[in-house]
Amino acid sequence: MKFKFSNISLNTFLFLICIVLSLFQTYELTFLIWTITFLLTIKQKYSPTILVYVSLFTAILFISFIPSIFIYSYRLFPIIRDFTYLAKPVLGLLIGYQLCRYPSSKGFRILVYAGFTIALIHIGLLIFAFFKFKSLDLNLIRSKGGFFSDYEIYILILLMFHKKFELTFSKKQIFLFTSVIGFSSLTYFARTNMIQFLILILAMKGFLILNKTTIKVLTALIITALVSYSLILNYNPNRTGDGVNRLLYKIKIAPEEALKTRINRDDWKDFNDNYRSFENIIAVKQVSSNGIGAVLFGEGLGSTLNLGRRIHTTDGSEVQYIPIAHNGFMTVFLKAGIAGVITLIIFLIILYRQPKSTIPLVTNINLLLIGSSIFLIVSNWVFMGFYLKLDNKSIIIGFLIALREIIIKENNALKLEND
């Protein structure tokens, strides 16, 4: 049997590996493979758009070097560790951009195939966990199968709007992919994925571009959300109840969990339920206590947050000093100060302000990118955005930008032929 490898098959393999690796908590391996992929696929030419996106995250990385070099003295390992964390969005955007070397019709298919593969792996993990532990406990399901999958939500949106993205799959294939990926996405029981799904749906409907209709729709959704939340509060779900109760309980405490400003660290329930807010409080106090220089430019690569007590982590270890917070804005504030946070916000604004196009397919990609910018606000607040070790959204964004440029070139070439 002969195997024939082409540039396209190699790119597809590398793309699949880079996406699938993010399912597993092996950050060192993920960063290594991403770096090798970047070096193997470097392009001769990059568009101004991708260079602007990359330069903003590079600027955050550069700012974080300043305190490490001139103010603080950290050990080499923590500096290298933080460098890999802050370099991850740069790598992801470039990898996605470099690996997209397909005709537009095939580019979207590659995205879907990768999503389908991830969903099958996730479902396989769930089945294995069920037969091994004989339990449908929500915490067990999430710990063994994964806590979220932003990638699968993106692919679910592509499939739901398959006509807008001109997917050439048959009806049976669309049904199969949607069913499998939809089921897999649902069984993560992730609040952020639910929010992501809603935001991207609104984006594809054009409701995130401000106008009178958008305001009416968003007002109706806000009212619906408030009524639904009131019903959950009235139901008063229990944190120790069954799977549905636990999910409703996490929804119930969500608004307070990320925004609370006072936490009783001696009350285990208050501490555990509002741990993300606790990290935010510690970050602001710690950086502020080190003076205006730290506030402006952070504490640099190698810095850590002192939690003031040892806490248990999901991997079974105990830590008191952590290099990153759940909140991406606070993590950047710790490493690069207000200057870094402003740079991150500039990226989100630029990502939202997508140019108008007369090409329908390009317009729909732009809508997806606009939705991504809004979701990244939420993602950065609760799960570090592009900086999360398991994140692959940066690859998706880079891929979509490259795919949009390919579509524009194809359209221009078609116009020349017709002329």
Q: SSE layout and pairings?
A:
Layout: H1 7-21, H2 27-40, H3 48-70, H4 76-99, H5 104-133, H6 138-145, H7 150-160, H8 171-186, H9 191-204, H10 212-235, H11 243-259, H12 268-273, H13 275-289, H14 292-297, E1 305-312, E2 318-322, H15 328-352, H16 360-383, H17 393-418
Antiparallel strand pairs: 1-2
Helix pairs in contact: 1-2, 1-5, 2-4, 3-4, 3-15, 4-17, 5-6, 5-7, 5-8, 5-17, 7-8, 7-9, 9-16, 11-13, 13-15, 15-16, 16-17
Structure keywords:
disordered N terminus, mainly alpha, globular, 2 strands, 419 residues
- Secondary-structure element string: HHHHHHHHHHHHHHEEHHH
- Identify the overall geometry: globular
Q: What is the arithmetic mean of pLDDT?
A: 84
Low-confidence stretches: 1-7
Describe the protein in words.
With 419 residues, the protein is mainly α. The chain is 71% helix and 3% strand. It has 17 helices and two strands. The protein has a two-stranded antiparallel ribbon. Strand 1 (305-312) and strand 2 (318-322) form a beta hairpin. Helix 7 (150-160) runs antiparallel to helix 8. The longest helix has 30 residues, at 104-133. The radius of gyration is 22 Å and the shape is globular. It starts with 6 loop residues before the first helix and ends with a helix. Mean pLDDT is 84; it is low at 1-7.
